[in-house]
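Hi, here's the filled form for the chain we discussed.

Project: internal
Contact: R.S.
Residues: 627
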Amino acid sequence: MKKILIIKSLNSLTFFLILVPCIMGVEIFYFHSSSFFLKSFFIKVLEKLSIKRINYEDCDDLGVQPNRGKIGDFTDQVLYDLLNSEHIDKFNHFFDRINDVDSKLSLLVKKFIMLRCDELYTVSIWLNGVSKFQHNHKIYLLWDICSIGNSFVLKSCQNINIKILAHSNLFIYFYYLNKGITRFIKKMFFLKQGLDDNKEQNLSSVMTDSVDTSSYEILFFPHSSIFYGDLFIKNYFYSEERGSVFNIKNILHIEFSRLLLGSKKAKFYSDNNIKTVLFPKPKIKEYFKFFKYAISSIGFINSLTMLKSNALLFSILLVNSIEFLTNKKIVNLSYGNAKIALVGYEILFPPVISLVFESLSIKTVAVQERFLASAFYENYPFILDTYYVSSSFTCKMIKESKVKFVNRCIPCGQLRTDLIEGFKSDDSGKNNLIIVFDYHSVKDPYLNMRMIDNNWLSNKSFYDDICKLAKRNKDFDFVIRGKNLNWTEIPYFEATIKKINSIPNLRISSDYKTLNMQYKMASNAKLIIAKHSSIGDELIASGKPVIYHDFQPNVRKGVSVDYDYNKFDNFAYSFHELELKVKSVLDGNHLSTKRKLIELQEIINNGASDGKAKDRVITDLKTLYGS
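And the returned structure, exactly as it came back:
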C-alpha cells in the first residue's frame, strides 16, 4: 500500500520532520511553504526529494465542488453535530431586537466552521480529484486540525483511507494568538515600510479626515472602493439628484481596511467629494469589558457547565456575542443618525455587523451581485433587510435557504443590464464580432496551483479552443476580453500569446482605461463565448446569444452541475459541442427556442432587460428612506 503524507506548511521545522518518512519512501505533499523554500536552490532540493506542492492541475477528475455549499452538505453535517439549543438559549438574549435570532446565531456558527475548513476544502477537493488516492493508498494528514476540521475531513473523504495524525481545539486558540501577535508586530515595525511601498506603487489614500460621521443618514460599505477593478463603478445606489440623500456626495462611504488607489481613481474620489472613513476597531479594553459582562450575565457556574459539555460551541457563541456588543457600541457612537446601510458585496459583508444594524433599526440594503451565489450556494450566507435581486425566482430560492435572511426581497432585474441596453445600437449583432470572456489568472505560480476553475492549465486549454475556433471561422473577428491583462505577463502563456498574435482574426482587448468597455463591446457582438460569469448572465437577459464553455482538462462539467439554466442548452462540454453551437449561431440559428429564452430570462432577470433596473432600485430606496 502506497503511503502519502500531507503537511500544511513546509518550513525549517517540518522539513526536518519529513526527511525520515521521505527517505523511507513515503510520498510527501505540502499546502504552502515559507519564503525560505521558494529560493531556487531549495526548489531543486525539493524536486530531487520528490516533495511536491498540492496542485489542482494534477487532478484527473475534480468532479462536483463542495466548497460552494448545498443544503445538507458536509459543512451542514458538521454544523448539526456541533449545535446545541441549550447553548444558543444562553446567548440569544445578547442579540436584542433580532428576528429569528436562534437561526441567525446558527449562521454565525456555520460561518466559523467555513473559515476553519477553508484550506481543508482545498485538500478535500484535491484528494477526491486524484483517483489513485482512492485505491491502495494510505493518506496521513499533518495539520492544525480542530474537532471541526477532523469531522469535515472524515465526512468529505469517505472514499479515501485517511488518518489525521493529531487534532485538538487548542489549535484554534493558537491560531488567533499567533494572528494577534503577527498583526501587532506588523503594526509596530512595518508601518513605515508599507507607506514607502505605497509611494513606489503610486498609490494614495482616499480616506477622509475630520468627518462628522454621526451626521450621515446613509452609509455605504462598497467593499474595497466603489470601483470593481478597472471594469465598472458600483453606482447602483447613487441618485443624480443633488439634494437627494442618495447623491454620491451625501453618502458616507465606509471601508473595513485602509483604502489606497491609483491616481485616476483617487482623483475620481476627490472630484466627487466622496467622504470615506475607516470602520472603527474596538479597543482591547472594550472586548474585556463585554467579556466580563457576558460571563456575569450567563453566570459563572453555567459558563463552566457549558464549557464542559461543548467548549467549542460555547467559545464560538461567546466570541460572536462580544463582537456584536462591542460593534453595537461603536455604531451607536459613530453613526447615531444612520437610517440605511448600503452594502456593496452582500456575500462578503460580515453577518455580525448586519445583526448590529438590525438591532439598531438601521436597514441593511444590497443588490444581488451574482445569480448563482445568491440563489444556489449555501456557503455564501448573508443577513439583509432589503435585497434588490434579479428575479422572483431568486426570492424563492433565498426563502428556501437556511443561511440567507432577507426581510424584503424585491425583484428589479440585473443592475448592469442597464449598461448593455444603453450601449446597444440599431445594428447590434449584425456585425462579425465575437467576444470571448475568459477567467482571470493569478500571477503567483503557487497560488495558481490551488485555483480550481481558473488555474493556468485550464485557462490555456480555453485559449487553445478559441484559437481553433478563430482559425476555422476566418470571416469573424474574435476578441478576448478579461478582468485584466495579468495573464499576458505570465511566462506560462508566452507560446499561447504568440499563437493568438499569429491569427489575423483573433486579438486580445487591451483597453482597461475606459470603464464599462466589456459591456460596450459585448452589447453589439454577434455572439459571446464565455467561461461562466455574471456578465454572461446579464447578456442572456439582454437577449444576446451566450455559449458557456463549461469544461476543462480535469472537469467534465462545471457550474451547470449546480444549475442547468432551465435546460436552455447553452453549455458546451467539449470542443466538438462548442464548435457545433458556434457554427449554428453564426449560421443564423438560435441556441434554443424563443419560449425557452423567455423562460430563462424570467428566471435570471424577471424577464428581458429593459434598461430600468436601477430606476426600480432608486424608486424603492426613496420609499424605504421615507418609511
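Let me know if anything looks off before we file it.
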